[in-house]
Automatic annotation (TrEMBL):
The chain crosses the membrane at residues 668-689. Disulfide bonds join 345-372. It comes from the Eukaryota. Residues 208-372, 440-626 form the Laminin G domain. Gene3D superfamilies: 2.60.120.1000, 2.60.120.200, Laminin (2.10.25.10). Keywords: Cell adhesion, Disulfide bond, EGF-like domain, Glycoprotein, Membrane, Repeat, Signal, Transmembrane, Transmembrane helix. Belongs to the neurexin family. It comes from Hylia prasina. This is CNTP2 protein. Pfam families: Laminin_G_2. Residues 373-411 form the EGF-like domain. NCBIfam families: GGGWT_bact.
Length: 737
């Protein structure tokens, strides 16, 4: 059988991004795998399980029944969901009751009209935003209900629609399996019920770890009950070449897992037919201070051992003889009687589907420390684009602050759409500091000794960004200085890219022209320019890098850099004639992940950081991924994702059977985007033709915001998601040109 990861947390630590995944919360236990949606955010991992109750399910309208029972069927069994909630750090489920003359909970003394049924078929008389034992709604706790005599908006019994909603977050009671609605038997009584998916965050089992600091130290637990079947899995990390992971003894029977040498893991046991040993040999050393996973299983038919992704070693059991493993001693973890113990870390130790709490036991055991440090050695490679791996007690995170990217792994481009005439300036020094501090502190990496000198000049620059536009000529980027020195990246009138350097010593600026490639074709293009002294290397898109050299007479110092401009150059003093011409009307299009040495000006503008004071913007900067290369539509942001419910008031679109069946919604969304784009284009063309016949002048298109004008649920999602409207806006603009 395929081995699935135990949780979404485990998938994140394989560098996986948000998507549907199969998880198996109890290993090879009886529960079996289930499909969940894993949402990987910067600092948390959310596991989401969906059900089939439609949002805003209507009940009432003079129904003869006294009670209306709404049943929720999940895409997982209750036991599977319990396995997720019990190992999670926090779980929540959104619940909402919209009412018209239909009371919800009544008063704290009276019997409630409506209740919900949670785990273990228990009834619960509290509502979203409240907690166990408090028969109130969120407004009753916040004291802002429609009628102050009651503790729910609906209990005021008004003839107008009212609503009580909020998060249920007492995870021992989740998930909601039924909602029973009671106050519907009067004429005019109506209600709508919405229940969100169950969302859990954190995985206490995955990070439950202990560090063994002396070779004589060990943890002990009660005897392992694995008579006919044993399933043991854990992660280890060590720089020692041998040591016992765990052992449990009987009279003659035993079971033991150990690191025999730097490249060998051994699983040995005796059920009365003599000792059996299975060894996995690794081609690479296992004592490299990185996490390695061990999986050992034994049943009456066979035994097996797997380490990481190495081939599984299997041994068949003899057809005759003993089959029961009879153990009496305690289970020792980290050492065994008289043998050399294990030095290093063991985490997420599961025996027959149950995670042993190594952390709690380590707190009271000398020579063993709870938790484990040093996760970056194993996971640091997932932090991309210069992101730094940061150690956390439970795992790691990527610090993207020194990059032009964000997201959990620093792979999400930060970019913006520039309307005509818009520009951004990034000052290399903040107001009120001397020129000298400026450059040495912000512009230059302190790791570079030759450029922190008193002359405040650059011997080298590294510039990278991506862009898309359909208008030429324009100025993409310009770096000014307190001297005549400058550097510019331009698109000339024929749509070709030009890099222009003026460092002094030459009559004319030095130009690198990339002819025969139209860059103003609306497609995203990437530009990387590196200058080291006289040598310049330029890489464009996926073409091989090309090298250029500044003329022999040219100065190689970029003296006193002052500011970086995007979209347009607004600088005092004399300005290059061509650049002056290209400046009007200015750049229209998209710029993304702009980085100049250590500086990411677009990110500083769009993400409030300590460098944001350096940024000045003219016009409205709209975040967009339209300049990202390759062009991607990332998952929706939390604020606009209809499944991401932070705001208790959000009532979100119907989640239908499709999600329950685990249909990937990305394909539906992309299909919707294409449909909307085509529809928009057709409308625009019709509109354009009519308009041209009526007016011979300029015109504007106004994007209809919000869901009112949406053609479908997909369109509504997209109209509310800035990423989508920008992509659509973009295509409109291109077609209008």
């Amino acid at each position: 059988s395929a081995i699935y990861e135990l949780s979404c947390e485990a998938y994140k630590h394989l560098g996986k991004t948000s998507n549907y995944y199969w998880i198996d919360p109890d290993g090879s236990g009886t529960l079996g795998p289930l499909k969940v949606y894993c949402n990987m955010t910067e600092d948390k991992v959310w596991t989401t399980v969906y059900h089939d109750l439609q949002m805003q399910t209507f009940v009432g309208g003079n129904s003869p029944e006294k009670l209306s029972v709404l049943q929720l069927n999940y895409s997982a069994t209750m036991d599977q969901i319990s396995a997720i909630t019990s190992s999670a750090e926090y779980c929540e489920q959104f619940i909402s009751y919209s009412c018209k003359m239909s009371r919800l909970l009544n008063t704290p003394e009276g019997n409630p009209y409506t209740w919900w049924v949670g785990k273990a078929n228990e009834k619960h008389y509290y509502w979203g935003g409240s907690g166990p034992g408090i028969q109130k709604c969120a407004c009753g706790i916040e004291r802002n209900c429609t009628d102050p005599k009651y503790y729910c908006n609906c209990d005021a019994d008004y003839k107008q629609w009212r609503k009580d909603s909020g998060m249920l977050s007492y995870k021992e009671h989740l998930p909601v399996s039924q909602v029973v609605v009671g106050d519907l038997d009067r004429p005019g009584s109506e209600a709508k019920v919405s229940v969100g998916p169950v969302r859990c965050q954190g995985d206490r089992n995955y990070w439950n770890a202990a560090s063994f600091v002396t070779s004589s130290s060990y943890l002990h637990f009660s005897t392992f009950q694995g008579e006919t079947s044993a399933d043991i899995s854990f992660y280890f990390k060590t720089s020692a070449s041998d040591g016992v992971f765990l052992e449990n003894l009987g009279n003659t029977d035993f079971i033991k897992l150990e690191l025999k040498s730097a490249t060998e893991v051994s699983f040995s046991f005796d059920v009365g037919n003599g000792p059996v040993e299975i060894v996995v040999r690794s081609p690479n050393p296992l004592n490299d201070d990185q996490w390695h996973r061990v999986n050992a299983e034994r049943n009456v038919k066979q035994a097996s051992l797997q380490v990481d992704q190495l081939p599984l070693e299997v041994r068949k059991a003899p057809t005759e003889g003993h089959t029961r493993l009879e153990l009496y001693s305690q289970l020792y973890v980290g050492a065994a009687g008289g043998q050399r113990g294990f030095l290093g870390c063991i985490r997420s130790l599961r025996m027959n589907g149950v995670t042993l709490d190594l952390e709690e036991r380590a707190k009271v055991t000398p020579g063993v420390k709870p938790g484990c440090s040093g996760h970056c050695t194993s996971y640091g490679m997932y932090c991309a684009n210069g992101g730094k791996c940061v150690e956390k007690y439970n795992g790691y995170s990527c610090d993207c602050s020194k990059t032009a990217y964000d997201g959990p792994f620093c792979i999400k481009d930060v970019g913006a759409f520039f309307e005509e005439g818009m520009w951004l300036r990034y000052n290399f020094h903040s107001p009120g500091t001397s020129v000298k501090d400026l450059v040495s502190r912000t512009l230059l990496s302190s790791a570079d000794p030759e450029i922190t000198g008193p002359d405040l000049s650059l011997n080298r620059e590294e510039l990278s960004f991506s862009f898309s536009t359909t208008k030429s000529p324009c100025v993409l980027l310009y770096v000014s200085s307190y001297t005549p020195d400058f550097m510019a990246v331009l698109v000339n009138p024929t749509g070709n890219l030009q890099i222009r350097y003026n460092l002094g010593g030459t009559k004319e600026p030095y130009n690198i022209d990339i002819d025969h490639r139209n860059m103003a074709n609306g497609q995203p293009h990437t530009v990387n320019v590196t200058r080291n002294g006289r040598d310049i290397v330029l890489q464009l898109d996926h073409y091989p890098p090309t090298s250029y050299s500044l003329p022999a007479t040219s100065d190689i110092q970029f003296n006193s850099p002052k500011a970086l401009f995007l979209g347009k150059v607004i600088e005092i003093g004399k300005i290059d004639q061509d650049i002056y011409k290209y400046n009007t009307p200015g750049f229209t299009g998209c710029l993304s992940r702009v980085q100049f040495n250590q500086i990411a000006p677009l990110k500083a503008a769009l993400r409030p950081t300590n460098t944001s004071s350096h940024v000045h913007i003219q016009g409205e900067l709209v975040e967009s991924n339209c300049g990202a290369s390759p062009l991607t539509i990332p998952p929706m942001s939390a604020a606009t994702d209809p499944w991401h419910l932070d705001s208790a008031s959000a009532d979100f679109p119907y989640n239908g059977q499709a999600i329950g069946d685990g249909v990937n919604r990305n394909s539906a969304i992309i299909g919707g985007v294409i449909a909307v784009v085509i529809f928009t284009i057709l409308c625009t063309l019709v509109f354009l033709i009519r308009y041209m016949f009526r007016h011979k002048g300029t015109y504007h298109t106004n994007e209809a915001k919000g869901a009112e004008s949406a053609e479908s649920a997909d369109a509504a999602i997209m109209n509310n998601d800035p990423n989508f409207t920008e992509t659509i806006d973009e295509s409109k603009k291109e077609w209008l040109i």
